[in-house]
Design brief:
The protein contains 17 helices and 25 strands. It is α+β, with helices and mostly antiparallel strands and 603 residues long. It starts with a strand and ends in an 8-residue tail after the last helix.
Length: 603
């Protein structure tokens, strides 16, 4: 079912009134009650424009719902939001609600109230509206209705506008391609590429190296109120024959041949060169170009520069190096007394690293050993006792003072972006979940990081952004920190690419825009499953768990679905709620449901 939302027409007033009354009757009200409500629920031709009434319709099924945004900015109300009974539960109400909230933001509304039927209150709460009391019914004397409100906490024209110009975007999941510039891509890169679905608030096209479950994008798009999204997946898998176009409006509509024989994909790029895989399919490359939409990669590479027609300067990715990043931190630190830069040493060989590690271990000092490049904690070890150390790679290696401390929050990140003109935009700060040295997820939202600490991180993050902009970098970046025993954050690395926390910021921006409020959002990239799940079973689990999260006023967005059939099966999710308690409850619910999957295979 493909729902389209358009302005209502005056000649539809009678049909819309009957639709509203049928929808009201769905809740079991008798004829006398409905007749008492008729006057209040009647849609009149002359007021359709003033009430901003819109219709949801399907090309085959006709009108399926109606909604209105009433009042004058900055305060207004949802006067109507009714769905044809045969379409209830099929996403029509969600689409209408998201449309009305988006229109409210466009028109400058900051507060929207909803006088809800008691039966519809759970829906509005799932969509993010906050109960604020009761209000008298306009039709039935002595009857009171739930009153809810939506408050828009963030401006529409902030960093999201700088990122994609306020438009939908084409997303390229070239995680492995980016990593391969600095060494072998991690074994998890193909799974992590699914996060590319969430590297802008509202994609139009998603391009992935690995095949994903057919209905995964429906689950993601349904939670975030997206329209149709084209998906081209499996482009770098061995023997890939095509890039498939799947959208929420129907099945496969278009197939692109594997690779133009005149533009072969070199063997060493078949596993990681997603940009090159697109370039080798001229029809697909031309399709993307014809859309005229921003092309957003996970990370910038020479092949992406060729695909996008955007040059990549020789020094643009300089500070992806942990060595170069540390040098920059040291230069900036005198102007930022709230920041503490840990000492760092370079070891040309493993033997040189071993000598320094042995000496520091004798002094009771822990040391962080790093390769110059790495993602998600790969290539990083903490050595506390030289007698128990992992096998290290060949040099050169970076050895860094381990910043001890129990101060919370411990692992932090600042996210920002450099626009095409070289201007730095602050996105926000997040608390990361790090187990050992392995990144597991992040939480963003109000109150997550204390305000004084937020300001310290933001000042330093903006200064870093100005330096990387001067080096020629354009795009997303973050600066990671650990908090020392004195409460001062210590910067550890710069990432010149999208990251796990960036996904949390994107989901928050989308939910704040379409549902209102100021959401807390948590990414959980590694949820162990109790059993290996094929696609259909995984989809069933996600749908049921999303429904249960909705029951506690939380949102579940499945983010990493492709690892569910690995030998150690797992999945990734993004969770959102308006309170920390609900967010924690949603994570506990998801983890329990995932672990319980093993029971279905137990006699």
């Amino acid at each position: 079912m493909g729902v389209r939302i358009r302005p209502a027409r005056a000649e539809e007033a009678t049909a819309l009134t009957e639709l509203v009354l049928r929808s009201k009757a769905h809740w079991g009200y008798d004829a006398e009650f409905l007749e008492a409500c008729r006057e209040e629920l009647t849609v009149r031709p002359g007021e359709i424009a003033d009430r901003r009434i819109v219709v949801a319709e399907d090309a085959d099924l006709g009108m399926l719902g109606v909604a209105s945004l009433e009042g004058t900015a900055p305060q207004g109300r949802v006067g109507l939001c009714f769905v044809e009974p045969r379409a209830i539960g099929r996403g029509v109400g969600r689409a209408l609600y998201s449309h009305v909230m988006g229109a409210a933001r466009d028109l400058g509304f900051t507060r929207i109230t909803i006088e809800s039927d008691p039966n519809a209150e759970p829906f509005y709460r799932r969509m993010g509206a906050r109960p604020v009391g009761r209000t008298p019914s306009g039709s039935i004397a002595g009857r009171e209705l739930p009153l809810l409100e939506v408050v828009f906490a963030t401006p529409r024209d902030g960093w999201t506008h700088a990122w994609t110009g306020g438009r939908r975007a084409v997303h390229l999941g070239n995680v492995a391609e980016f990593q391969s510039q600095f060494g072998p891509a991690s074994s998890q890169a193909a799974h992590y590429s699914c996060l590319a679905a969430l590297i802008s608030p509202h994609p139009a096209v998603l391009i992935l190296p690995r095949a994903v479950p057919p209905d995964w994008i429906d689950l993601v798009g349904g939670a975030l109120g997206w329209g149709p999204v084209e998906v081209y997946d499996g482009l770098t898998e061995p023997g890939a024959a095509s890039g498939m176009d799947r959208s929420r409006t129907g099945p496969v509509r278009r197939l692109f041949p594997a690779a133009d024989p005149a533009l072969p994909v070199p063997p060493d790029e078949q596993a990681s060169g997603l940009s090159r895989a697109v370039l080798s399919r001229p029809a697909l490359a031309e399709r993307l170009k014809s859309l005229g939409l921003p092309l957003v990669p996970w990370g910038r590479t020479p092949a992406f520069a060729e695909l996008a027609g955007e040059p990549l300067g020789p020094d643009a990715l300089r500070y992806e190096s942990k060595r170069a990043a540390h040098e920059l931190f040291t230069r900036l630190s005198p102007a930022h007394p709230g920041i503490r830069v840990p000492e760092q040493w370079q070891a040309a060989t493993r033997r040189a690293a071993a000598r320094l590690l042995r000496a520091r271990s004798r002094e009771g000092r822990a040391t962080v050993v790093k390769t110059e490049h790495g993602a998600g904690g790969s290539g990083t070890w903490v050595i506390r006792d030289y007698g128990f150390r992992p096998p290290l790679p060949r040099g050169p290696l970076l050895l860094e003072e381990f910043v001890a401390g129990e101060t919370e929050p411990r692992d932090l990140t600042f996210d920002g972006l450099v626009d095409t003109a070289g201007r730095v935009h602050e996105v926000g700060v997040a608390v990361m979940d790090v187990e050992g040295t392995a990144y597991q997820g992040a939480t963003v939202g109000p109150g997550v990081v204390p305000q004084p600490l937020t300001e310290t991180l933001a000042r330093f993050g903006r200064a870093v952004g100005e330096r990387i902009a001067a080096s020629g970098y354009r795009g997303w970046f973050d600066v990671d920190f650990v908090t020392g025993p004195d409460g001062r954050p210590a910067p550890t690395e710069i990432n010149l690419r999208m990251t796990g926390p960036s996904v949390a910021f994107m989901v928050k921006a989308r939910l704040d825009e379409t549902r209102g409020g100021d959401h807390l959002v948590r990414t959980v990239d590694h949820v162990p499953l109790g059993a290996r799940l094929p696609g259909p079973e995984l989809s069933a689990l996600l749908r049921e768990t999303a429904k249960r999260c909705g029951g506690i006023d939380a949102v579940l967005v499945p983010s990493i679905p492709t690892a569910s059939f690995e030998p150690a099966p797992r999945l990734g999710v993004v969770l959102a709620a308006h309170t920390r308690e609900r967010l924690d409850a949603a994570e506990a619910l998801v983890r329990a449901a995932a672990q319980d999957t093993g029971r279905m295979f137990t006699p």
